[in-house]
Amino acid sequence: MSFKQEIYQDINDNCDILLNFLKDETRTNDTAAGRMIYQCRWLKEQVAANTLRFPVNDYLHTLKHVSAERLLEYLASSPDRYDEEIGIHFYRLLKAVKGNLLLKPTYYPYTIRCIEALLDLLQHPTRSLDQYERGLTDELLGIKQGLAACSIESPLMSYLPDYPNFEKFTVFMKVL
Known about the structure:
This protein is an all-alpha fold. Helices cover 61% and strands 0% of the residues.
């Protein structure tokens, strides 16, 4: 499967999940739920026609707005569970329409190897590590074990409070 086909599959899968949450909602431009039905159906049509060009920048205002404002929070079993039940699929869909491949369990062995390489660098540094880099080692070991056991799922957004050093380290890396 090509990258494009895999991204198309990710778009379809996440649209299907969101449409399932919206199955009892009315298709209308008058509600966020109705607009999201149209948005997901449009994306699926574009995938079927093989016409999406990445990154998709146009025609995604509804997806971005509904996601950012958490306008479908009422569809979750409780507000606390929104991110893991619905928000995660918005996040994945937004990543996919940007042309990004999503991390899936089939890629975990490769991800674990990358984590092991980073751990090796942290355990044998060529310079003095800052406090976040030192704290990152234990957190990376936890992420590695979680991925190996399939007890955590990417992305780690909802887990970030559990990994404060990882969060600080990745924020620093974005600045570079």
